[in-house]
Structure formats: structure tokens, C-alpha cells
Prior knowledge:
4 copies of one chain form a homotetramer.
Chain A: E1 2-12, H1 19-31, E2 35-39, E3 42-48, H2 49-65, E4 70-80, H3 87-97
Helix pairs in contact in A: 1-2
Amino acid sequence: MNVIADLSVVPIGVGVSVSRYVAACEKVLKEAGLTTRLHAYGTNIEGDWDKVFAAIKRCHEVVHEMGAPRISSTLRFGTRTDRSQTMDDKIRSVNEKA
Amino acid sequence: MNVIADLSVVPIGVGVSVSRYVAACEKVLKEAGLTTRLHAYGTNIEGDWDKVFAAIKRCHEVVHEMGAPRISSTLRFGTRTDRSQTMDDKIRSVNEKA
Amino acid sequence: MNVIADLSVVPIGVGVSVSRYVAACEKVLKEAGLTTRLHAYGTNIEGDWDKVFAAIKRCHEVVHEMGAPRISSTLRFGTRTDRSQTMDDKIRSVNEKA
Amino acid sequence: MNVIADLSVVPIGVGVSVSRYVAACEKVLKEAGLTTRLHAYGTNIEGDWDKVFAAIKRCHEVVHEMGAPRISSTLRFGTRTDRSQTMDDKIRSVNEKA
Lengths: 98, 98, 98, 98
């Protein structure tokens, strides 16, 4: 099962600057071989369900190892069985109707 | 690693009434032995990371099997390493400050 | 236009314990005369669109005034034109199918 | 008060293809004079709090007018008082740590 997801990780208890932790999480997602795209409030991720969620778990582990005592993340995730669809397809589809 | 999560599952392409699918997902979470609490815009879930995410995957599979061609879910999920905390602890903590 | 929403407010830069800020936000929502219900990962809110969103804005203002330099919130919000529906209706609807 | 937000609008009860509605919402946001950036699971929005939330309301109204009887949206939104920050700043900040 393929999934398109959008992850936002918020480390708590490490001050106001959280970009160092977000960057580490980006690295984890890329090293997992997933297609990712960073935006201003999260990261788009595309891939096999198990690989995507294993990488998200690893991301939490790494951010804790870096010293964050608490993490609050949000995830949007979509699956479909009617047809396959990539992140690019989704954006193209909206732009065509614009 | 323990996680407290909050899941909202939105089946797309099956009309306006989605409660039948949400109820099926609730059943999956309970059968997985997880502590859950339904609210008006999702379900609180508490448990071991792998068990929680395996149940969420099963939930998507079941909702697709019921006929939903597309699902868009949102999840909040929090982990902490400084201390253990249950869903009840979180609510109590807020109410004490009220 | 009526809305059913679910708000989770995460103050950043004030340490790991955030319940004091969540409690203040609860107070703002109640003083706005909105029907609210606290759960382990947010608060259900029901009411007129403009009142709900004015209270959410006030909530951010109050949490900043309490000393939080940064806030990252998440909101689910649903509207419908086919019929009116309360938070209790939504829960009842799921439980009937269980 | 400035806000950086990330909006995902899911119309329910209009079939599996929702891009037409997302495109209409994009148009509303742009006509409101807001800086927006579409990604594969939502839209980044930056601007004055009141303008951003007025546009989000208009977006729900327009999607209902197009025939969607039900909408379930999710929003991430962040404010900060310690310094001003744009969407580009946020992305640059993560990339510098990569």
C-alpha cells in the first residue's frame, strides 16, 4: 500500500529554534530512500506505507537522541485504491483546474 | 517507545455519511488491545508505538475493504523521554491549572 | 455558518510542561460562550464560525501574553450545509454503528 | 499579528476527485492578496491573522457554493512574538542545518 503523507515535527523543551531537529528528521527520511519535499510547515513524503512509517518512527527516535525530551508531531496521510497517484500528480491536478 | 496519538479518518468517495467507516476503525483499534477514547473529531489512542501504528494501518485497510476508494487521515502524535504520561495524566494536568 | 472544530495548541520555548497554557486557552474558549470538550490531545469546539475563530485568535494572544514566544497549533474544522449536526450527534452516529 | 499557516481542505460527498475544489480555494487565497504556496498535501499561507482567516472562511463558503455538502479541513498555524519570520526564512533555516 502506497501513501502520500505530510509530516510536521515539533520538538518541545529545546527552546524556540527547532530547525536543527527538523533538518535531522529530513536526513532520516532521505536516507530511508523516500521521495520528500520540504515546505514551510512540514514535509511531503511519498512511498510504501511500511517504509514511510518506519522512517517517521526513526525520526522521533533521532530527535529524542539529539536531546528533545518531548515531541508533538502532526501527520496528514492519504491512501487510495482506485488508482495510483504521485505528489506531482496531485499538484498538477489542482493547477490544471486553476 | 510509547505514544499518545489522536486519529481522524476521512473516507472520500462514499457520500456525506462516514460514521460507518469511523466505527469500523474504532473496532480495529479496540481489537488491537489499545486504549482508545472517541471524541467529536477523532479518537485518542495510547500504547506502544508499533502496536498503535500497526492498528492505524489495519484501519486504512479495513476502510478500503468496506468500499472507500480514498482516505485522507490526520494524526497528532506525541512521545516523551523525560517521564511516562497517560491520556488521563494529560487531561488531569490541564484541569489542575484551570 | 456553524463549525465543529478540534484545536491543539503547542507553546514553544517555555519548557516541556505546557498544561498551564492549554488551561488558559480553555478558559478563553469557555468565556467566549462556546461549547467545548477537552480531550487528551486537544479540545472540541462547537459554535458560530466567527465566534469560534475569534476565540482561537484570543487564545494565541493570551498564550503569548503569558510568555510563550512561539506557538504552533493544529486545527481540524468541519462545516456542512446538508443538515445541522452537533458534537454529540457525531459521537452518537459512530456509536450506533459500533 | 502575523501568521504562517498550512491549509488542507477536503470536500466530502462530491466523489473521489477533489482538485476542482482545491483549485477554487487557491483562487480565493490569492485574490485575498495572501502569499501562498501549493504543495502535495495543502497550501502554505502567510499574512496578517485576520486576512488569512477571512480567506479561509471564504474558501469554505465557495466550496459549499460549488456543491460540496460537507468539508473537513485541517490547519497548522504558527505565530511568534520573538521575531518576524517568513515562509522562506523557515525553509532556509532548515536547509542551512542540513
